[in-house]
């Protein structure tokens, strides 16, 4: 019997033979700023004949595989002129591109970029990338633009209150943010009550904020990832730039060590308002300083070595009665290696140190704590094809925690010197993830991270009756610290507690057309280190602690759904996302918790759960003389801490209550206007619902003393927070490209002098005997002027 082959099979085989008979070659290289060879992150490369779109990685590297032939390569990046070049590929080709910055003329604001189109198709959501060019158009506070102030204008991002450090993302706590500077962990991001951030914008190259859909290469926190990279330095010629302001000044120097092979950048910044205070016999002072440095050496086309560091410090002194000193130290040794045209690797050895000290004269206390980590990571990016890229790697972190070295402060101090038990931990992770285009419309990013955390000795650990560090007093209906029944002595590196978690990640984008897409994401994350802080205390503490048998790791599950739309040829764009987050093992303090001098924090904490959900909207105008965006978030963040058994009420009787970072409404309007090449203007209006608080709802007499009574936890709110900031920048000679170039910046923070509440205090008037409320505000209107220069 004669066999027959189905015609459709013949067509399929013919298609396969035709496809794979086309010999393919690889085009790869580095894309950098032509003027200083600074590599550019996230540059868009589009090849229309092959319908291929790719971007450069975190080190400016790109690669794509194509059949032999002639192609048009279109390269675009915000703030730079587009490149369009025709190339003929007959073999594997390395081609580096240098992009030229847009000149500072009126035409700058009408340059178009394919950035927004690329974002439509990428399975990346809940992510915001801000270029330094965009940040520098925003109003400068006290003479300089600020990285953290810029991300506070994004949907889903708030701060706890005026004068608070850090930021909150989608109802999460400050310690839930993984903040990285050149891959090193930054534990405190603020200078001077949050007025400045630790990030000097002059030395920052790129930043990206992940609020959800977080890739598998990141771990250890549950709220967000803020990934920041420093500049590498100009390897062609020397340059200096800086600024002189009323409160602080800064200076940056960069240049080649070996021309076109090695370079450096060093930047310093400091405030000096305290010097004027001394001249005026003002007993209070507050100042900060920081230093950034980075060096690199290019051995050849396949090997680059980078050394970067940061050192910063704050000193707040209130008449020597209260002194607060804190700072970060970071160091990173990094090796980039290109194994082939398809495999890129990065190995890093990282050191992070955060120390925190308070001195309180009224109680005679000198307290110092710190956290150090030693981090090794090795990451690979494997470009299998234009439709499939794998990311995989390992990460190991060794932690050392000092919760408190206590010494007497002052001649009459009754404090006895003490050293609270130091704690140690080891965190390891391995991950793999894939970026895959299933079709022209559907693309995925999926992966899995395995993490392991071990609490290690040496340490003496308390034991408690029934293994309960808290006891519930039935008579008074309150929780009290349990008295230890004994201790267990764990020797050095002996395992005290261990945790393992699998953390799946998934993001998907479906393109409705070239200008619209729908995206969805899910991620699970684990957090093993926690910030123990009680800012309501008269002596605020800032102590980091590892998970153990009592303080469990927090586990997050988050889902998000989004709609993205570019219209009018990318002149405008709209992003809308809704999210839901659930956290297990969310610890909270019992009523009346006192952290001062406590050697076992488990005696004031109860484990519960948390959830947050909301809708985020962002409308952007991308081109024209007027650019900017409007962002709005409506969200809810809640916690529930039930009792450990049916006889205990837990916190708030086991009912859901507002989280400390709950803000129902968050609105930000950000604008930049170019009047002409000499004058540019910026403004930001911010409105947030008041922070959650617990106010007294009555009072009673006890042995002649008036005692306030309180209702449900966080059932009240501070007043709404809002202010308007404006700035104007004058450039006398905008067309000057060489030699001394200067500009003046004029700004006003809180233009209408809104007295935003930092806190409320409740007391009894000594004269009238009546109860009264006092609102504390930190900042009113703050004008400033600064002179910025470069040469």
Walk me through the topology.
Blueprint: H1 7-21, E1 24-33, E2 44-47, E3 52-55, E4 61-67, E5 69-76, E6 83-89, E7 93-94, E8 97-99, H2 115-121, E9 127-130, H3 132-135, H4 147-151, E10 157-158, E11 168-169, E12 177-181, E13 184-185, E14 190-191, E15 196-197, E16 204-210, E17 224-230, E18 239-245, E19 248-258, E20 262-271, H5 273-279, E21 284-300, E22 303-318, E23 322-338, E24 343-360, E25 365-385, E26 388-408, E27 418-419, E28 423-437, E29 442-456, E30 459-463, E31 470-473, E32 478-481, E33 486-490, E34 495-513, E35 516-527, E36 529-532, E37 543-546, E38 554-567, E39 572-589, E40 605-621, E41 626-640, E42 657-658, E43 665-674, E44 679-688, E45 692-693, E46 696-702, E47 705-710, E48 716-717, E49 721-730, E50 741-749, E51 757-764, E52 771-777, E53 782-790
Parallel strand pairs: 1-7, 1-8, 12-17
Antiparallel strand pairs: 1-4, 2-3, 2-5, 5-6, 9-16, 10-11, 12-13, 14-15, 16-17, 18-19, 18-53, 19-20, 20-21, 21-22, 22-23, 23-24, 24-25, 25-26, 26-27, 26-28, 28-29, 29-34, 30-33, 31-32, 34-35, 35-38, 36-37, 38-39, 39-40, 40-41, 41-42, 41-43, 43-44, 44-49, 45-48, 46-47, 49-50, 50-53, 51-52
